[in-house]
Amino acid sequence: MASLPRLRSLLGSGPLVIALGISGMAVAVAAPRLGLPGASSAAISDSPKEVIDQVWQIVYRDYLDSSGAYSTSRWRQLRRTLLAKSYAGTGESYEAIRGMLASLDDPYTRFLDPKEFKEMQIDTSGELRGVGIQLSLDKETRELIVVAPIEGTPASRAGVQPKDVIVTIDGESTQGMNTEDAVKLIRGPEGSKVVLGLRRQGTVINVSLKRARIEINAVSSSLNTSADGSTKVGYIRLKQFNANASREMRAAIKAHEKSGAEGYVLDLRSNPGGLLEASIDIARQWLDEGTIVSTRTREGIRDVRRATGNAVTDKPMVVLIDQGSASASEILSGALQQNQRAQLIGQKTFGKGLVQAVRGLADGSGMTVTIAKYLTPDGTDIHKNGIEPDVAVSFTEQEMRQFTSTDLGTQRDSQYRVAEKTLLKSMTGAELSLEYKPGSSNLVAALND
Questions:
Q1: Is pTM beyond 0.70 here?
Q2: Does the annotation mark 352 as catalytic?
Q3: Domains identified in the chain and CATH numbers
């Protein structure tokens, strides 16, 4: 993520708070600023037009085009067209804003009405309300995709899986919906139910979920003894990068150090992301030196975040990842892999690496706008590419159905067994075969249980 001085220059002079949406995208929250070239005080004297022009100017100043749909000349013409119209109220102006942003063909640059904006600001506090699903809109198919369910939530207990496509919500087709439309239908009073139609490998299944208030502990851990009885292994599962994650991670590492852990397995499977600063601080708990992540804006500026020589431990470690590991998880796993701190075990990650700025608008609404891309330490663009594991492990549907959440990080978790074997070989200096053949008991939907 950009340094504070650089972000201030990019986003304006208002107060700045670094955050990252629960969907896993990096964001910077800043106060609105007007007065860009071309703004006419007469043209935006009424509130609906003022908000339209704020949105237009933010895109004009900060937007990083990743789709090829943006043109400065077309954007200027669109402003003239929209400000020449009359709007009866916020409903009409909000529709105009959504249409304006839709022309960018970027699912992460989006408008949030005042209620949606308030809910988004709550999402990284460590407490959620709903069913516990992280959503993304596929740029090509325009379908609603599950990034990952949050462990311990109604969605994970019901077996919702990363990459599931939500085709209906309470029987209503999601065709043409954006993530905000879907969230409005999925969220509701605590204890009420919502039925999701999920397409998985060509088959549609209906899943009934009871909405709940969800308090999330970001970290769970255990001190394991290796299968051969030779080594104490600190197993740490990081479920998301919320406001508590960095503190909980530090406490878990210190507790394992005190208990004599000789090596670590860090589990990022089905972790959809969270706060950017949490991912950087956690990387620094494992890394003494090296680049963690950098960002690239449309001007080509790159801001680099590095380790600070304050790692909590230097003991050997491996990291578990899968297709539900997104955004901040990809930053952390990429940093550990490319700094030769850890080998990655599992499946290729989700591939979500666009940085968004979240901007408050004059009437209490807000927007997110793509302003940069994440780059791994070696300069690789995370977005859509994801992070490849060093040891690839695949699963069958049957194996997944056999697994439960209590199996995570145990000898019943075949992906963990591979991670443990990899860790022990790295500790002894033995050569490691990167080919893995799944056994009879593999990781499952229990990540989603």
A1: no
A2: yes
A3: 4-116 (3.30.750.44), 129-214 (2.30.42.10), 217-353+374-448 (3.90.226.10)
